[in-house]
Amino acid sequence: xxxxxxxxxxxxxxxxxxxxxxxxxxxxxxxxxxxxxxxxxxxxxxxxxxxxxxxxxxxxxxxxxxxxxxxxxxxxxxxxxxxxxxxxxxxxxxxxxxxxxxxxxxxxxxxxxxxxxxxxxxxxxxxxxxxxxxxxxxxxxxxxxxxxxxxxxxxxxxxxxxxxxxxxxxxxxxxxxxxxxxxxxxxxxxxxxxxxxxxxxxxxxxxxxxxxxxxxxxxxxxxxxxxxxxxxxxxxxxxxxxxxxxxxxxxxxxxxxxxxxxxxxxxxxxxxxxxxxxxxxxxxxxxxxxxxxxxxxxxxxxxxxxxxxxxxxxxxxxxxxxxxxxxxxxxxxxxxxxxxxxxxxxxxxxxxxxxxxxxxxxxxxxxxxxxxxxxxxxxxxxxxxxxxxxxxxxxxxxxxxxxxxxxxxxxxxxxxxxxxxxxxxxxxxxxxxxxxxxxxxxxxxxxxxxxxxxxxxxxxxxxxxxxxxxxxxxxxxxxxxxxxxxxxxxxxxxxxxxxxxxxxxxxxxxxxxxxxxxxxxxxxxxxxxxxxxxxxxxxxxxxxxxx
Length: 547
Ligand code: CA
Description:
By secondary structure, the chain is α/β, with parallel strands linked by helices. It has three domains: 24-30 and 372-440 and 451-546, von Willebrand factor, type A domain (Rossmann fold); 37-237; 285-328 and 330-368. The protein has helices at residues 6-9, 37-47, 58-75, 77-89, 97-107, 112-120, 122-125, 129-142, 147-158, 162-171, 180-186, 196-207, 236-245, 250-260, 275-283, 287-292, 294-299, 308-317, 320-325, 330-342, 356-368, 403-415, 441-449, 460-467, 490-501, 537-546, and strands at residues 24-25, 31-34, 174-175, 178-179, 215-219, 222-226, 380-385, 421-426, 430-431, 474-479, 506-511, 517-518, 527-531. Helix 2 crosses helix 5, helix 14 packs parallel to helix 15 and helix 20 (330-342) runs antiparallel to helix 21. It starts with 5 loop residues before the first helix and ends with a helix. It binds calcium ion. The site of calcium ion has 6 residues, from loops.
């Protein structure tokens, strides 16, 4: 007798078939659930679409995500913009590019109200001149320079104090084919009341140092006469910047840099190889710049075992306040660590001998940038998808950080605080992944990179726990959700595990790519989606586990 019912009563559907009407086909031809557009928006903002995924080209992934942003804007423009601002201001994303892209889409939306909200958010999202230029490059491909955009750009310049604006103007002089002069010209010039200092700075931006005498300008048929402006009204940083451009003595340059708190972008290229200049720059160096220049500082001999520059770098990397204020993202720290420990740059010929104290300080900073991660003491199984697709592409476009490496590093931060952790790797079967919390991230990267690849079955963690009768309160699965291989869906495997053990085990899916797929069932309150490398994720996960 053929027992037809066996195919429907065991709560087991092959992943190649739909287990629920809510499931959609993923890129690997398996069936998964889909996160809603708001969750996908957060995935885009944090993980980006650069480099695409194993399955989707960058172009395809960007277009899909643009459609998702458009759908969010259509449903609730204000909520969409509020999400962009929140992610940006809290430093939850490793890169601003996806947020700037989404903001540009919002500024070009068909609803006037949405455009207004988006343009008003410009200074909150574009905090630096560089971000402003990147935004403008994108937005002008999507819409014209209408009145709203002109006013918003003008506001960006006019609401800053002269000193703050001067810093942005001399630090980011041009990028993406834009200069401040271009931006102000396209914005139709500055409007509204302004101080003598602002006037002087605007003239310096638009005409350089020659524009300070009285002059007559004919604009739209109207003749306007401008009085002479004293050069002394310029912020002191501008004069110092001009002096630095003409400087050839490293000692004199170093004095200017320290006195005026100047950054490396303001230094002429003739002085870029000077250790004295870099030592001066290090005094007030912003954290992101310090992270990017650790190799250079080491190769110049400044950062060396026992040097005062080394002590300064190490103490800053342990300074929680400084890390937080700089909105330093763990992924940026991970990339810096990965580059620094290799001893040579990705491009160019610079090489250095990594200083162990700096490597250790970067390891510590990685955990600190997640904020304080609460320990739940729950029996937590960290399950890392190490299948082939996780070894392709880059998280947030970060060099060398595949989803596989990124997820292992992120899991480490939580493993270091959780006393009752278990860890496993899986592809279509269990894959031993020898990770432990005392391991350095360098060792983690090496270990995970050498794991053999395979097909994908995201039900493996739950099946393993059931087979071995292991007690698990929370399964935390780091994956791209491209599951297709198994004979039972992950949510079904979890249901069966709960029935077998009587435990109300939870499932947290840490999505590592900006797709819409998820193995978590939206109808099960015991399942949660979070975004990989969202700095808010560890706390959300802990709250969910402790209920
Ligand atoms: Ca896979």
